[in-house]
Design goal:
Number of helices: 15
Radius of gyration: 31 Å
Strand order of the largest sheet: 3-6-5
Shape: elongated
Number of strands: 12
């Protein structure tokens, strides 16, 4: 069959989108080059009216050829007997930019000098084969036409690129493997995506190249026993769905406007992969009302917000300014999802996927992070001996190597939050040497008759004190702190303290997958998010050799902690 008979007819008149310099005002609402616009479902009617108005106006703002004579519309001359200059004000001829058009190329927000490798993982048009990673031919599927230059708009027009193959007999799928694959890989999505066959074919190749990098990095990072469990490859019928995610994982925004599963509906029957209007928020996360994650915490004294925000239309912005818009309606009980955890310091992201509910996975992250801070303060031996958090020991199994749990032990924001809710651990926070010396002086003056010899230090208590982690350079424990530590171990020697499990991350669901996708499929989608969000707390998911996730923070963990008035270890009688 001839290619022209099956390709979608997607044509954009580039000249109808030219604007005049009068539109380039200083008003922030009109600065379409730097600010991405979004809308909510309630704004559909306004957006439609604005689109009509814009199109009607722009049709009259055509660029006038250079040969067009300047026609003065107003001549102002002062009547005088002496010769004066005549000022001509042209109100007719539109102004021209140096490039002869007024809309520049789309400016990418999240690509800079140090992350150029990301360009090789993004979907592109089938051009610039000799320099395919320069980013000039990015697909930009989630960019509104009003933010694209005429050259970029012209690339979207149907028939711009010739496909490398043609199918002459679509009915030969029973006898031909090539035609059968064509039905699976192309025909099942061609009409719905409303895009040229050549663009699909070109980006299947790029997706295959990414998958090869993904498999190689996965083998390099996973332990040998896990490699044996993860040697499978995607099934053929999963490839079109993966391409659907891949094509809409744009340079600055993930926006799956074609989503048609889990009660989601494509935004338009004719829009396809390319945004015809600005992206909009259509779905939100609603609470189930039963799990700990969706119940509002009783005490929000030290938190600026709940760990997850429900019932809000909007986009999620990652630390590197990449953004995502939810593709399906979802609750905290939805399974088969990709989610993000952001440290309370706001500087580090972690991307993960799960076949389970977010509530279950978030509970596991909470427990492991709390155990990590307990180990920081008391020492792993003491935590084990006192059986602190024993009920969670099975969930923490060999996670200390994970950046996700190493970072909280170096982050003052997370340690501060833990101490605010578990004040009995303050004696294990070292003081600066000068402060500790001053505290020793004050303590001796107020408690002249109290010495450490008055505290019964049996062999077990001394063993616990010896296992307390040593303070970092420039810090030490005061005498009063050591006394409080001994009393801590005496008190909890038989019965361990009851710790409040503190939420040390903010969470959000960023993508929803069909309920029947494979584990490998989720891992691949997770990897795409890790690459484009440059998630620093991820060990798995990165495919390039880089030091992006090595510097997770090396400051002195106890340097910036604030002792609340009711939690000071220096409480006096």
């Amino acid at each position: 069959m001839d290619e022209d008979t099956i390709l979608p007819n997607f044509r954009v008149d580039a000249t109808s989108l030219f604007t005049s310099d009068e539109d380039d005002s200083d008003d922030g609402d009109n600065n379409l080059m730097e600010t991405t616009q979004y809308s909510t479902p309630t704004a559909q009617e306004n957006r439609f009216n604005q689109t009509l108005t814009k199109a009607t106006t722009n049709e009259l703002q055509m660029t006038i050829p250079l040969s067009t004579p300047i026609r003065p519309s107003l001549v102002r001359q002062r009547p005088t007997t002496t010769t004066k200059d005549i000022v001509v004000i042209d109100l007719v001829t539109p102004k021209k930019s140096p490039q002869n058009f007024h809309q520049p190329n789309y400016i990418r927000r999240t690509i800079h000098f140090f992350n150029q490798q990301r360009l090789s993982t993004l979907p592109t048009f089938p051009i610039s084969n000799n320099d395919e990673n320069n980013g000039s031919d990015l697909l930009l599927a989630n960019v509104s036409p009003i933010q694209l230059s005429p050259i970029e708009l012209a690339r979207r027009q149907a028939g711009q690129y010739q496909c490398a193959f043609t199918i002459n007999d679509l009915n030969a799928s029973a006898t031909s493997m090539m035609v059968k694959n064509y039905h699976i890989y192309y025909l099942s999505i061609l009409e719905r995506f409303n895009v040229d066959l050549s663009i699909l074919d070109h980006n299947y190749v790029r997706l295959k190249d990414f998958l090869q990098l993904f498999y190689t990095a996965r083998i390099r990072m996973l332990r040998f026993n896990k490699r044996l469990q993860n040697t499978s490859y995607l099934k053929d019928d999963e490839m079109p769905l993966l391409l659907e995610f891949y094509l809409q994982m744009d340079v600055d925004l993930f926006y799956m406007k074609t989503c048609s599963f889990r009660d989601a509906q494509p935004r338009s029957k004719t829009e396809g992969i390319f945004c015809a209007t600005i992206p909009e928020y259509r779905y939100k996360i609603t609470p189930c009302g039963h799990c700990k994650l969706c119940r509002t915490p009783i005490d929000m004294k030290y938190r600026s917000q709940s760990p997850i925000l429900f019932n809000r239309y909007g986009k999620h912005q990652f630390v590197n300014r990449y953004e995502s818009i939810l593709n399906c309606p979802v609750t905290c009980n939805t399974i088969n999802i990709v989610y993000v955890l952001t440290c309370l310091c706001g500087q580090f992201d972690y991307i993960n996927e799960t076949a389970y509910r977010l509530a279950k996975r978030f509970d596991e992250h909470r427990q492991s992070a709390n155990i990590a801070i307990c180990n920081l303060l008391l020492g792993n031996k003491n935590v084990t001996s006192l059986q602190i958090n024993q009920q969670y020991e099975s969930s923490s199994f060999d996670k200390e190597y994970m950046l996700l749990y190493r970072h909280p032990t170096q982050c003052s924001a997370t340690i501060q939050m833990f101490l605010d809710y578990n004040k009995h651990y303050w004696p294990f926070v070292p003081m600066a040497i000068e402060e500790a010396n001053q505290d020793d002086t004050n303590y001796q003056r107020v408690h002249a008759t109290t010495t450490m010899s008055n505290v019964h230090l049996d062999r077990d208590i001394r063993k616990y004190l010896k296992a307390v982690p040593k303070p970092p350079a420039g810090y030490k424990f005061s005498k009063y702190q050591i006394e409080k530590q001994a009393k801590f171990f005496q008190k909890y020697y038989i019965s361990p303290p009851t710790n409040e499990q503190v939420d040390l991350y903010n969470a959000n669901i960023i993508a929803v997958l069909p309920p029947n996708t494979s584990d490998l499929f989720r891992e691949i989608v997770r990897s795409l998010f890790v690459i484009h969000t440059e998630a620093k707390l991820n060990t798995l998911g990165h495919i390039f050799d880089s030091n992006i996730n090595l510097n997770i923070g090396h400051s002195i963990w106890c340097a910036n902690l604030v002792r609340r008035p009711n939690s000071s270890i220096l409480q006096r009688r």
